[in-house]
Amino acid sequence: MSQLVERVVHGLRVVIDREQCVGFGDCVQEAPEGFKLDEDTIAVFTNPEAVERERLLRACDSCPVDAISVWDETGSQIVPG
Q1: How far is it, in rounded angstroms, from Cα 16 to Cα 46?
Q2: CA 47, CA 53: separation in Å to the nearest integer?
Q3: CB atoms < 10 A from the CB of 59, how many?
Q4: Are strands 77-79 and 43-45 parallel, antiparallel or unpaired?
């Protein structure tokens, strides 16, 4: 399985680097409907479309090890920023 998991949400390309994730769960605390920790305590998507864009960005940016990256509609990386 690829260690990069990608979704397009609200026009944003959101990528979780499963190798970099260490399971702090800050993204889950910020947006529990969008992320969860799997059986390996690694972040995975649940229903990120249910999270408002600004809160989704905060959740992605809350990762202390920058395991979640976000690019906007123009292809510019905005998280980590």
Answers
A1: 12
A2: 13
A3: 26
A4: unpaired
Are 81 and 71 in contact by the 8 Å Cβ rule? The answer is: no
For the chain, what are the domain ranges? Answer: 4-79
Q: Which CATH architecture has domain 4-79?
A: 2-Layer Sandwich (3.30)
Name the phi and psi angles at 14, rounded to 5: -110, 125
Pull the structure tokens for residue 62. Answer: 């809350």
Residues 6+ apart with CB under 8 A from 25: 37, 43
Q: Write out pLDDT tens, residues 3-20.
A: 999 999 999 999 999 999
Asked if residue 1 has pLDDT above 60, the reply is no
Tell me, what amino acid is at 56? Answer: L
